[in-house]
Structures are given as structure tokens and as C-alpha cells.
Amino acid sequence: MSNTAQTLDLDAVDAYLRAHLPGYKGPLEATKFDVGQSNPTFLLSTPAHKYVLRRKPPGVLLKSAHAVDREFRVQKALENSKVPVAKMHLLCEDDSVIGSAFYVMDFLDGRNFADPTMEGEDNATRAGVIDEMNRVLAELHMVDIDAVGLSDYGPPGNYIERQLGRWSKQYRASETEVIPEMDTLMERLAATIPPEDGQRTLVHGDFRIDNMIFAKGSTDCLAMLDWELSTIGHPYADLAAVIMQWQMPPGGEGRGLDGIDRAALGLPSDEAFIASYCERRGLPGIDNFGFYLSFCFFRMAAIIQGVLKRALDGNASNPERARQLGRHVPQFAAHGLAALDKG
């Protein structure tokens, strides 16, 4: 079988797992998940066990993108922490096996919510799931990075400045047309970076409800997924990422809460969610939250621009979905400017 973003060389994977994964026994079947725009993700099924394989996509990639080795390392480091993660089994960095690096982890038989409205759930479940999101987020930012061996997982200090530089370069590298709102947003963010406040924590980089697996029949989180953008950085970027998604339109495209009567659904306001997070972390409050929110809109715009570029180049995991996402870059940039204006 050829190796593309859509397929997997089952014979090669089977041989590798037989040699490197204790207890593994075939025969092996694989099914590609629809999720995982960046790193193609497959369900591996054997008669006795189910695993998940995440691989780098084939082809020419942007520098530092699709870092499955980092995803593996951070989840392995968190396996005994209060941050729920799947059990990591192995990392293969030998491109000759299936054409790109990959890792294998346990499959978790839980449930996943596509968006924060959690259609079909009762108010108590919605409130419980969002509170569990809040708990996991706070616990993530309270992980002792030295104790879990992640003190070198990101450069020291200046996280926001470095992120702005990184994603500005990534955006320019994948730019397909001039978007004035993005140009203005990058200029304004660079000119208004808040002073360092001494907070240096593990950050997920894409913290949202659809990157979480919850237990069936309860609101407990079984695992936080999709750690590709994780690093050592500033915790408010993760918190703002949650609020950013909630300000998007509801439904399949935005998966947000804009215009939704949250109280009627048992969902907290932005302010209540931030207050709960601050209480869990022992913080008095957050100054200039609008900057961090604007930064998240900018970063997401840069990410989906990269997804669009891969679709146009023929390397996207889900090409049609990638093209749909790409049309929203100007919208995210406009939201970023509005958040800066609001402060």
C-alpha cells in the first residue's frame, strides 16, 4: 500500500509493532479518523486491543511543524500527573518504516463533544463538562515542569514575543493572498506585548473541548489530545484559546457559542469561566485579557492559513475541509483586532 496522508502501509506497521510493542498480536486493521487535520490519525484494531497511530504527513513540511516526537514526549511526561492523557506506547522516528515519523498510544473508548453546546446533553452534564475543562486547564498550568522532566521543553521567557514571531513567519510562508486585516493585526500585536509577569508553565497550544475525551456516563476527562503545539509558555494563551472558540458562531463551522443563551443551557459566561480558573490557580484576576484573546485569534488564523496552503499543495489530510477552513482567515483576523480594541 502506498503511503499518503490518507493511507497506511499495514504490513510495515504490523512488522514494526511485532518487533517493538510488548504484548502486540495481529492481525491488524486500520481506519483513518476524520479528525486530525495536521497529523493524520488512525485507529489500529487487533482482536485483543485497540491503539491510535499519529503520523507526520508526507511531503515537504514547514520547519518545526507536525512535531509528533514532541506530542509523544509531553504526554509520556504527564502520565502520572493530574492532567489526563492516553497511555503512550512507542515513538518511531525512522522515516523508512512508513515514510514519516509516528507514535502509537492507547485508544480510549470515551465520548467526544464536537462543540461546547453539547447538543442532546442535559444542563447538569454541560455544566460538569465545562467545569472539568476548567479543572484540567488549571492543573495543566500547575504542573511542576522540573519534576516531570519538561523544563527544557521550550525556551525561557518571552513566550508571546516568540510565538508572534513564529506564527508570523509561518503565515508568511503559507500566504496565498494579501489579507489586510492580518497585516494590521500582526503589527498591532507586536507593538502591544504585555510585560513579562514571571509565569512560565506547560501550555497545550490548542486547548478546546473537541480535543478532549470524556468518560461515558460521567463528566470526567479521560484524556487531553492533540499536543502538537504544546510548549513551555504563558498560561493565559491557553485560557484565551477557550474563550476565543466560544466567541465563534455555533454549528459545524465555528463550533462556538456566539448568540447562544448560555444560562438556558447551563453554560458559564466567559467571565465566570475565567473567575473559576483564577480561583483554582490562586490568582487575583487577569489584566489586559483582550491582548491574549487577540493573540489566539491571530494564531488560529495563521494555523488555518497553513492548512489551506497544504490543501492547495495536495498535502492536506482532509482537503475539502481544509479549503472551507481557509476561507475564515480574514474573519479570525477581524476578531483579533476587535479583541485588541476592547482590551
UniProtKB/TrEMBL annotation:
<keyword id="KW-0808">Transferase</keyword>
<dbReference type="GO" id="GO:0016740">
    <property type="term" value="F:transferase activity"/>
</dbReference>
<dbReference type="InterPro" id="IPR011009">
    <property type="entry name" value="Kinase-like_dom_sf"/>
</dbReference>
<dbReference type="InterPro" id="IPR052898">
    <property type="entry name" value="ACAD10-like"/>
</dbReference>
<dbReference type="InterPro" id="IPR002575">
    <property type="entry name" value="Aminoglycoside_PTrfase"/>
</dbReference>
<dbReference type="InterPro" id="IPR041726">
    <property type="entry name" value="ACAD10_11_N"/>
</dbReference>
<protein>
    <submittedName>
        <fullName>Phosphotransferase family protein</fullName>
    </submittedName>
</protein>
<dbReference type="Pfam" id="PF01636">
    <property type="entry name" value="APH"/>
</dbReference>
<feature type="domain" description="Aminoglycoside phosphotransferase">
    <location>
        <begin position="30"/>
        <end position="253"/>
    </location>
</feature>
